[in-house]
Amino acid sequence: MRTVPPLVAAYLADLYRRLSGADPAERADIVDSVREHIDVALDELEHEPTSDDVRRVLADLGTVDAVAAAWSPDAPPDPTVRRSVTDSPGGIVLVALGGSMLGLVLAPVSLALLVIPLAVLVLAVVASVGWVRKGAGWKAWRTIFVATVPVLLVTGVVTVGLTAVFSTTESVGGDPQPIVSAPPAP
Fold first, then answer.
1. Using CA atoms, how far apart are residues 66 and 80, in angstroms rounded to an integer?
2. What is the secondary structure of 113-148 as a DSSP string?
3. 91 FRET partner, CA 20 to 30 A, in 98, 119, 139, 169?
4. How many angstroms separate the CA atoms of 151 and 123, rounded?
């Protein structure tokens, strides 16, 4: 028989305390059932479990509150998970449209301050790296990325378009240059 890892012992003790309002016999059955589930999951590893293995098994099982709520109808529900705006396709479209509108607003300013498109480009690259790494706050990075790409595209297109318009209008009204013609060759 394997010794109970400290993380498992702490998890089961928290579960036991969380179920304090349950019938004592039912409480013991629930904790034993969860212990058996953890033991089976650790036995399936086919090697001595590391602390990372134990953490993974406990994470797959869920929080103590979630497990207690599943077994006890009197337990308060698990707190809702905070959702990101870009969790749905509609949210992505809304954030992208907002980024496009922001790009239109910033485009005239970006002609004078070419730093804005460069700053947005840097922010988009940083956000894409944060999103791809899936670290803490990756949903926020995804939202920033989805918002900054349209800003970058719109400010870039409008800036290039306005630059082309202003550069052609400035050269049209210039002083006419005399036309020098060469005499015909004999």
1. 11
2. -THHHHHHHHHHHHHHHHHHHT-TTHHHHHHHHHHH
3. 119
4. 11
**Cα-based distances in Å from 143 to 69, 92, 120:** 32, 8, 14
Helix 6-18 crosses helix 24-43 at what angle (to 10 degrees)?
Answer: 150
pTM of the model: 0.40
Domain boundaries, the chain: 6-71, 85-171
pLDDT tens, per residue, the chain with 186 residues: 567 788 888 988 998 888 888 888 888 888 898 898 888 888 888 788 888 888 888 888 888 888 887 776 554 544 555 567 677 778 777 888 887 887 777 766 665 566 666 677 777 777 777 777 766 676 777 777 788 778 777 777 777 777 777 665 444 455 555 555 666 766
State the Cα–Cα distance between residues 150 and 120, nearest whole angstrom.
Answer: 10
* Burial of 54: CB neighbours in 10 Å, binned 0-12, 13-18, 19+: buried
Cα atoms found within 13 Å of the Cα of residue 51, Cβ hemisphere only: 2
